[in-house]
Amino acid sequence: MLLKDKIILMIDDDNEFVRLVTKTVEKEGGVVVHVDHPSKVLEAVRAKKPDLALLDLNFYPDNIVANAARGEAVLNLRKEHESLRLMPIIVCSSDNLLGTVINVESLGADDFLAKPFNPQVLIHKIQTLLATTKE
């Protein structure tokens, strides 16, 4: 079990994607905590103390299409909250253009995962980030 007892915070509004990631993480012994709105992120981090977060770049909670409600808002919170700065974040998006990947890394993401995802790649990325943040 590659992710035994690891808590992964999933910030996404796509229930099917959440289901697939949860199945993949749980198969490796991890636990997924899901939030579907940026306003719930800090509360989940304080309560569950996740080891890593998977963040959908283009999620629209409450069907609000506004930059303030997108994944960038969560990345911007990292500047203000130490608990988020210390937690690795992998941004997930179907927009896997080079400019997007570079942009999310410049905003503070630790890695990028293209949707649809390969389960082995997801587990590898999580393991790699968890190993490097231990050091």
Explain this structure:
With 135 residues, the chain is α/β, with parallel strands linked by helices. It has one domain (7-134): Rossmann fold. Helices cover 42% and strands 18% of the residues. It is built from 6 helices and 5 strands; from the N terminus they run E-H-E-H-E-H-H-E-H-E-H. Strands 2-1-3-4-5 form a 5-stranded parallel β-sheet, sandwiched between helices. Strand 4, helix 5 and strand 5 form a beta-alpha-beta unit. It starts with 6 loop residues before the first strand and ends with a helix. The mean pLDDT is 85.
For the structure shown, list the relevant keywords.
single chain; 135 residues; alpha/beta; Rossmann fold; globular
Architecture blueprint of SSEs:
Elements: E1 7-11, H1 15-27, E2 31-35, H2 41-48, E3 52-56, H3 71-77, H4 82-85, E4 89-93, H5 98-106, E5 111-114, H6 119-134
Number of helices: 6
- The N- to C-terminal Cα distance equals 21 Å
The largest sheet is: 5 strands, parallel
Radius of gyration: 14 Å
Query: Can you give the mean pLDDT?
Result: 85
- By CATH reckoning, the class would read Alpha Beta
Second rung of CATH, namely the architecture? 3-Layer(aba) Sandwich
Helix residue percentage: 40-55%
CATH superfamily: Response regulator
Structural class: alpha/beta
Strand order of the largest sheet: 2-1-3-4-5
Coarse shape: globular
**Relative strand content:** 15-25%
CATH fold-level name: Rossmann fold
Q: Compute the number of structural domains.
A: 1
Helices and strands, in order, run as: EHEHEHHEHEH
Low-pLDDT regions: none
What's the count of strands?
5
